[in-house]
Design a protein that fits this description.
Elements: E1 2-11, E2 14-24, E3 29-33, H1 40-48, E4 55-60, E5 63-64, H2 70-74, E6 77-80, H3 92-96, H4 109-122, H5 139-151, E7 157-161, H6 169-186, E8 189-193, H7 197-203, E9 206-211, E10 214-220, H8 230-237
Parallel strand pairs: 3-8, 3-9, 6-7, 7-8
Antiparallel strand pairs: 1-2, 1-4, 4-5, 9-10
Helix pairs in contact: 4-5, 5-6, 6-7
Length: 248
């Protein structure tokens, strides 16, 4: 479904991606791990066509991401942003239905609201929250609303950007379980970037370790504790000693 071949991207003198190659199968949940500044977010932006690589090729469903109808291409994706990115001036249901009420295939307001309520129920929220504003919700509830928005238009592919940032361990577990259930239920292709190893273990089918702009290791999640790659081992264990340099 998603394939990156020898992708390079620099911003000025800073080389971020240095020959990144990665494939994500249809219906697979792939989690990309790696330290801050290793290129995880740039990788997602390149897949979406928001950033154009300097060289290499990226295809989604066999289509080059730099070609074709952009609106139709982006309509295939859902996104859960790191900070939620809810619109403060809109009630919850309008946040969830935002895409449904715009562009081609625009739904009538009443129909969009019903879909939003259904998606809110899917993430464990009752209709009581529909008319509330994001500022009236807890962090965990805001994350659920963001997840409901990500699945509202039934996308083929969903990106999750640090889905548990800012949540306590219990709520993180709840969100991880919800993501796993929804990805399995919808049969979507999912790509997650995270530092949270509990999320990795809960969400992933495959894991890709990104370091210095390249994939250092890629394999099934049940092999991350036994793999012999020193970069992966250091990241998984959280050790200060290893090939990944730390500021002391």
């Amino acid at each position: 479904m998603i394939e990156l071949r020898d992708v390079h991207k620099a911003f000025g003198r800073k080389q971020v991606l240095r020959g990144l190659t990665l494939g994500v199968a249809q219906g697979e949940s792939c989690v990309i791990i790696g330290g801050s500044g290793t290129g995880k977010s740039v990788c997602l932006k390149c897949i979406l066509g928001l950033v154009r690589p300097d060289s290499g090729q990226i295809t989604v469903g066999g289509q080059d991401v730099t070609q074709g109808d952009r609106d139709a291409f982006l309509a295939r994706f859902g996104m859960l942003f790191q900070g939620g990115a809810l619109f403060d001036s809109m009630p919850v249901w309008q946040n969830v239905a935002f895409r449904l009420m715009r562009g081609e295939g625009k739904r009538p307001k009443a129909e969009a609201r019903e879909i939003a309520l259904d998606k809110l129920r899917r993430v464990g929220l009752t209709g009581d929250v529909a008319e509330l504003y994001p500022s009236e919700l807890s962090g965990g509830m805001q994350k659920r609303v963001s997840l409901a928005r990500a699945i509202a238009a039934n996308p083929e592919i969903i990106f999750f950007d640090e889905p548990t940032t800012g949540l306590d361990p219990i709520m993180s577990g709840v969100i991880n379980d919800l993501i796993r259930e929804i990805v399995t239920e919808m049969g979507v292709t999912a790509v997650t970037i995270t530092h949270d190893m509990s999320s990795v273990r809960a969400i992933a089918d495959k894991v890709a370790m990104l370091h210095a702009g390249k994939i250092r290791w890629h394999g099934p999640v049940d092999q991350i504790d036994t793999a012999d790659d020193p970069y992966l081992r250091q990241f998984v264990t959280g050790s200060a000693d290893g090939p990944i340099e730390t500021v002391r």
